[in-house]
């Protein structure tokens, strides 16, 4: 943690990897993460926590599965959406997007996913900037 401001655009310009969130800062026990996304993530859930998505640039679709029903939420620049704890979801951005995420420190990006993680995804608790 630092007592100096951190510029979001500077951090986003510092990396190119997709689906590899960077920890921008911490608020209480939560990480504020930045990620560049493109293509599809994996279906997963976070049994013990909600997950906040803020689209900074581009657009993001979040596919949701609950009680056997699948729906999707479409987010554009500056839209905010919370995936409730325990809800299976799969973020996707065919054209690419930059997103800010808020979730408890130590939360694995792939949540409870148990399969082989595709090469384009970094299953991580966040990379410190």
Automatic annotation (TrEMBL):
Highest taxon, organism lineage: Bacteria
GO molecular function, one term: manganese ion binding
Residues covered by the Cupin type-2 domain: 35-102
CDD domains assigned to the protein according to its UniProt record, in alphabetical order: cupin_YdbB-like
Listed InterPro entries: Cupin_2, Germin, PKS_Associated_Protein, RmlC-like_jellyroll, RmlC_Cupin_sf
SUPFAM superfamilies xrefs: RmlC-like cupins
Coiled-coil regions, chain positions: none
PANTHER family: 16.7 KDA PROTEIN IN WHIE LOCUS (PTHR36114:SF1)
Protein name: Cupin domain-containing protein
